[in-house]
Design goal:
Rossmann fold; Four Helix Bundle (Hemerythrin (Met), subunit A); ten-stranded mixed beta sheet; seven-stranded antiparallel beta sheet; 17 helices; 51% helix
Length: 670
């Protein structure tokens, strides 16, 4: 038992060196080590009870005397010896003294307390230093007692400090409590008992002092009965001790105590009387507690050692090349995780681009009057994002002049076989209208508006009929207008997607990246940003200008799908009942314009979509892969371990050595 207690005390000192780097870790380990803690109200006789058990004197007074936790290590040895040590939070000795006489210890402990208090003048109670008193002798029990400051009400701040200190000790798994209170007072009203009731499940031994003042009368018996009724619920045993006895002969002292307290057992047989019985009981409790707690403490230390070794391995120093290689793997993993959501968003942008290009309205260049016309089979199919005009009342004519009161612009939200749905921008309420309703009008203008334009374009045609007029310059005029429109749409979509590309790769190069390679990852991020700017943005700009040229440069305003274009013109002409009127020549040119723009809407939307995919998806992936395959040597200089990681590794290495020593020491007693 003595060897185990000595080992525990040595381990406690060793573990104290961990508090500087990891206080919470130290507290967790400290909590498992077995010890007896003496607590109670101030001036209740705690120091006197410890003196009776250990034979050494501690500072005693009617005022506050125990200002710092004092650990009394009592051991049975052939030779008598007394040593006093003051240790700080890191376990370092700041005071050391030896003495030969038991009654000299109080003065030495008081000096140690004074030194601790002077080290921090802002505190009246010291909670980060410990006075250790080791007392050995042939008649000593084997037990460790920690004398804590007593409960008091002198100062609210001090009360809180003391309660926290006591609470920290008594809640430790390895702690047994020696609860010392005055036996001649009402137990329920004693100072600190409210606090102790909050920790009623903690195993304890209760010691009553001042019981020599109890008389064997009705009042005394009632007071003692009430006390024992309460202590029997939470204590393994309740003892009465005469704290004022100070005989150098131990046996004489015990005889005097037996005589002075002999009436107490006649008052209530549940009460044990005398220091001898208390000493034997707490030694037995400590022995039993050691048998249970010592293996648990060893397991806790071993588990902590395994956990520390694992943590140390996770932060071990590694060659820069290894870290860069793992960083590249993380880049690839990040991209793999983000690629599908990115492509989904890209698809939405491309879909919106196509719909917006097809939303180009064929409208007059010169004419100010605007008419809408009924939809026909040659109009673009309505889909989410498509635009149409809704008349306020069904149309009986092919075209209707647009005014603020008779026509409203709508944007489709969805369609089914019967209806087209749209949302009001003001109320956000979805409305619907039958898809074949005559109120649903085309987004393009009616032929009348373009016929007026065409006549102005062909005014200088000499003697030729309008039917024989060269229609290419007229088609070019509307094609250029269409080119200007879709170029703006493509550029706007490109800007949105480019931002998504930048955001994608910024996250790929920054998320889940270990701190040692974050600077290197940032260099990768900068290099990728440079490639996006110099290669992707340049190429996509060239592509947009090329697509614009397809409908703005005269030599490019044609389609190789001549058969489809001719078929489309023929169908439009055939369906136009007004072709035999005087405006037939202009209407024929109108159908040529409309058919060409329809063909180009399809071509441009498809070609622009594929170009954006080619450049912003495929080429960006190519740039990314090329960047990852570039030599890693140019990034080696940017792999630097942060000081925080270095300090963590040093702390873990220190912790590992301390725990290895502690485990090795405790294993010797298993």
């Amino acid at each position: 038992m003595k060897q185990m207690l000595d080992t525990v005390d040595e381990v406690r000192v060793i573990l104290a060196s961990l508090t500087e780097s990891d206080g919470s870790f130290y507290e967790e380990l400290l909590a498992c080590l077995p010890q007896f803690v003496a607590c109670g109200p101030q001036s209740s006789g705690k120091s006197a009870v410890i003196r009776r058990i250990s034979r050494i004197s501690l500072p005693e007074a009617a005022t506050l005397c125990t200002r710092i936790a004092t650990m009394v290590q009592i051991r049975r040895e052939a030779q008598e010896s007394i040593t006093v040590i003051l240790s700080n939070a890191e376990g370092k000795q700041t005071y050391f003294a030896k003495c030969d006489k038991f009654d000299e210890v109080a003065g030495i402990v008081e000096k140690a307390q004074t030194q601790a208090i002077l080290a921090d003048s802002t505190k009246r109670f010291i909670d980060d230093q410990t006075v250790s008193v080791r007392v050995c002798g042939p008649d000593m029990p084997n037990v460790t007692l920690v004398d804590l400051p007593g409960f008091h009400t002198d100062d609210d701040k001090d009360t809180e400090t003391v309660n926290q200190m006591i609470g920290r000790y008594i809640q430790m798994d390895g702690t047994l409590v020696l609860h010392i209170v005055k036996g001649d007072q009402d137990y329920g009203g004693l100072l600190g008992n409210d606090f102790m009731r909050q920790h009623s499940l903690i195993p304890r031994v209760t010691v009553l002092t001042h019981c020599d003042k109890l008389s064997n009368d009705e009042k005394g018996r009632s007071l003692l009965k009430n006390t024992l009724d309460k202590t029997s619920e939470n204590s393994s045993q309740t003892f009465a001790i005469h704290g004022d006895l100070r005989d150098s002969d131990l046996h004489k002292e015990r005889d005097k105590e037996k005589i002075s307290l002999s009436h107490l057992q006649r008052m209530d047989s549940r009460l044990e009387v005398g220091e001898a019985g208390l000493t034997d009981h707490i030694q037995d409790r400590m022995r039993t507690h050691l048998e249970t707690q010592y293996p648990k403490s060893l397991v806790t230390l071993q588990n902590s050692l395994e956990k520390t070794a694992a943590e140390l391995k996770s932060v071990e120093e590694r060659p820069p090349a290894d870290r860069l290689y793992q960083m590249i793997i993380q880049f690839q993993q990040n991209y793999k995780e983000k690629r599908l959501p990115y492509l989904n968003a890209f698809r939405e942008s491309i879909n919106n681009l196509c719909v917006e290009i097809r939303n180009h309205a064929l409208s007059p260049i010169f004419s100010k009057s605007t008419h809408c016309r009924r939809r026909d089979e040659h109009d673009e199919a309505l889909e989410a994002g498509s635009k149409f005009r809704e008349l306020t009342s069904p149309s009986r004519t092919y075209s209707t002049k647009i005014s603020d009161s008779n026509c409203n612009e709508r944007v489709v939200t969805r369609t089914d076989q019967q209806n087209v749905y749209w949302k009001n921008s003001e109320t956000k309420v979805e409305s619907s209208i039958p898809i074949n309703d005559t109120r649903v009008q085309s987004w393009d203008c009616a032929p009348e508006d373009l016929i007026e334009d065409i006549n102005r374009f062909a005014a200088e045609r000499g003697l030729r009929n309008l039917l024989h007029c060269d229609r290419q310059p007229i088609i070019e005029a509307y094609a250029k207008r269409f080119a200007s429109y879709y170029t703006t749409v493509i550029q706007k979509t490109t800007n949105v997607i480019l931002k998504s590309v930048r955001d994608l790769f910024d996250s790929v190069f920054s998320e889940k990246i270990p701190e040692p390679v974050r600077t290197a990852a940032f260099k990768f991020q900068q290099n990728m940003a440079s490639k996006i700017k110099c290669e992707l943005e340049t190429e996509v700009h060239r592509s947009i200008m090329a697509i614009k040229a397809y409908n703005s440069e005269p030599d490019l305003i044609f389609t190789v799908n001549d058969h489809y274009l001719s078929s489309l013109v023929q169908k439009m002409v055939t369906a136009d009942d007004d072709m035999t009127t005087d405006s037939g020549g202009a209407r024929h040119i109108y159908h040529n314009v409309r058919a060409f723009i329809k063909v180009q809407r399809k071509f441009v939307s498809e070609f622009a979509s594929k170009e954006l995919v080619r450049i912003l998806i495929l080429k960006s992936e190519q740039c990314f892969n090329n960047l990852l395959q570039s030599p890693l040597s140019e990034y080696t200089e940017f792999v630097k371990e942060p000081q925080k990681l270095v300090r963590m590794r040093e702390s873990l290495e220190k912790r590992k050595k301390v725990l290895e020593t502690a485990v090795q020491m405790m294993m010797q007693n298993v």
